[in-house]
Amino acid sequence: MRVAAISAFGPPEVLRTAEAVEPYAGAGEVRIRVKAAGVQPFDCKARAGLIPFVKSAGFPLVPGNEFSGVVDQVGEGVDTFAEGDDVLGFGVLNGYAEYLTIPADQIVRKPDTMPWDIAAGLSGNGQGAHMALRELEVGPGDTVLINGAAGGLGTLAVQVAKAWGATTVIGTASKANHDYLRELGAVPVEYGVGLADRVRALAPDGVDAALDSAGGDGLRALAEVTKDRNRVLTMVDVDTAKELGLREWTPVRSAARLAELVDLYEAGRLTVHLRATYPLERAADAHRDVETGHGRGKVVLTIG
Ligand SMILES: NC(=O)c1ccc[n+]([C@@H]2O[C@H](COP(=O)([O-])OP(=O)(O)OC[C@H]3O[C@@H](n4cnc5c(N)ncnc54)[C@H](OP(=O)(O)O)[C@@H]3O)[C@@H](O)[C@H]2O)c1
């Protein structure tokens, strides 16, 4: 089978297509014929050798922690899925491949109305946004601030916050992405120096909850304008969070959480905006795109 793999940690060009042996589903697992795989900043950090537990996984190493595809083998003891089921799911590695095996409790059914590329890009950012907003107890009446709102994570966080009843979602982005944020239902504001003042102009009493997907000075501004520091959460900047005394948390992904996101999609309350799709052969370009740190929505590899 074809994979995009690395044989050494390094810049995007170390990620190349290669041939690998097809895996077989073990007990409790299914094998997926992969149609598409999402590209996450996590994959780029794994490729660069910045994730300690990935460093010990050995080479060749195939990145990719979210995917969509068709179940084509069912391991012993699995009765929840059958060959031919269309699914989406999550893992840690091995998504950039024509086939992967995965525990059966890490996939959910894909609705016919959900395209393969959208399905591939839902889990990582969707579950990240869902976990963080649950942790922040976002609900009806809240004014929520999202830093990095136009990115893959932010795009979904804006929509999930609205779906859960937030009255106002203020999102930071560069000017070029402000119309995009308005389309998502957020009030746009530019990030950078003076952010706290710009947010106060929109929410004079401060915001109820704030989610950070960019870090640095933006996180300081979020802490400044949020009424209760216990309702400020960062996905990226643990050091600044510690320094500011913000809450710490441990994200846990689950099929139940992913299924809730699929339900929101089916109800027409959630869309995944694709920034770009690349064929498997251009996985390195997909990583370069994600590593720009700018853009709207999600980068996905099309595979099968
Ligand atoms: N722990 C988890 O479960 C989890 C899950 C998903 C993601 N994450 C993390 O969350 C982060 C974001 O992921 P992503 O997939 O959303 O990345 P992404 O798609 O690359 O998004 C980057 C976004 O950040 C914005 N941005 C750039 N510089 C900024 C700044 N100084 N202040 C505010 N916003 C800025 C950009 O907006 P403009 O284009 O307008 O400049 C862009 O839309 C990553 O570090 C990722 O590892 C964690």
Tell me about this structure.
The chain has 304 residues and is an alpha/beta fold. The chain folds into two domains: 152 residues, Alpha-Beta Complex (Quinone Oxidoreductase, Chain A, domain 1); 120 residues, Rossmann fold, CATH 3.40.50. The protein is 31% helix and 24% strand. The protein contains eleven helices and 14 strands. The strands form three sheets. Strands 3, 4, 5, 6, 7, 13 and 14 form a seven-stranded mixed beta sheet that branches. Strands 10-9-8-11-12 form a five-stranded parallel beta sheet, with helices on both faces. Strands 1-2 form a two-stranded antiparallel sheet. The termini are close together. The model has no long low-confidence stretch (mean pLDDT 97). It binds NADP nicotinamide-adenine-dinucleotide phosphate. The site of NADP nicotinamide-adenine-dinucleotide phosphate has 27 residues, from α1, α4 and α5.
